[in-house]
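Need tokens for this chain, all 242 residues.
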Amino acid sequence: MAANLEDVPSVDLMTELLRRMKCSSKPDKRLILIGPPGSGKGTQSPIIKDEYCLCHLATGDMLRSAVAAKTSLGVKAKEAMDKGELVSDDLVVGIIDEAMKKPSCQKGFILDGFPRTVVQAQKLDEMLEKQGAKVDKVLNFAIDDAILEERITGRWIHPSSGRTYHTKFAPPKSPGIDDFTGEPLIQRKDDTAAVLKSRLEAFHKQTEPVIDYYSKKGLVANLHAEKPPKEVTTEVQKVLSS
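Here are the structure tokens for all 242 residues:
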């Protein structure tokens, strides 16, 4: 149930109203972001979301919130998870279908982390077709595995503050030590070369056929994801304004 509007501060109401007015002239966009871990999708998606007034659909988060809200699809998803099974493609597509009906998704969406397989891509297309919609663009964050390895395995974190460092791009003043507290830095379990290698292998095996699937439809835009974030943002804007 939405909050009573009388209780919402005027500034928030006006800000939202202005945002919606600005959004009303924007073209609808339904976008899919594809890229390996560390390719910069997480940096670009909030920028695209704000620029085009889209909703960001991260399937992992959506599944968790559907389970927490005990929606009929969420209950089914929880049953599968409790048994240690994967949530079926139809269920995930159903949850995306539900999410798309929200007012925040009126102008379209950014899908991140789905589809991971060609079957999922086909099911997504079928669901959109029923709504008279389609995917407009697939942004492929193309980047060399070696560059990713350097990006990710160089990341170090100060656990209590969340401050991040990078051995090459943003090193701490003293190796392995937080600049402010002098406490030791740690590396995330996922940020080691061995874990990255297996994640990349899985990504290439599963997801490259998805890129081929959308390429045949002429929807894929290949971005130079190894460039600095600002340059990638400029590339994205060019692709989406054409």
